[in-house]
Specification:
Structural class: mainly alpha
Order of helices and strands: HHHHH
Number of strands: 0
Shape: rod-shaped
Oligomer: single chain
Length: 104
């Protein structure tokens, strides 16, 4: 959806990346936490499926992943609402001013 914006089409990708930096970084962090958590869980439970294994490190990682998920979904919703702003899809004076500043 970022690629459909007028801001992206006129070449102001840096403006979009700056605006959505937190969402992009938190998405990468959440994905990393999720992959590590689920890989660790699968590794612990692969050979012994009848036992419940829960280590201290796994519990800490679980908490971090869940906290990151709350922040991720909040930023995801905020980003989707911001991408619904019609100013991103049409020419406007603030974009012309920004484009002129970047070209200099």
């Amino acid at each position: 959806m970022l690629f459909n914006t007028y801001v992206f089409q006129i070449g102001l990708v840096a403006v979009l990346l700056e605006r959505f930096r937190a969402a992009l970084m938190l998405s990468a962090l959440y994905l990393t936490f999720s992959i590590i958590l689920h890989s660790w869980l699968m590794n612990l439970r692969w050979l012994n499926t009848n036992r419940f294994i829960w280590t201290d490190g796994l519990q800490v990682l679980f908490v971090f992943q869940r906290v990151a998920s709350v922040l991720y979904y909040y930023l995801y919703k905020r980003t989707s609402e911001y991408l619904g702003d019609p100013r991103l899809y049409e020419d406007s004076p603030w974009l012309r001013e920004l484009f002129a500043r970047v070209r200099q």
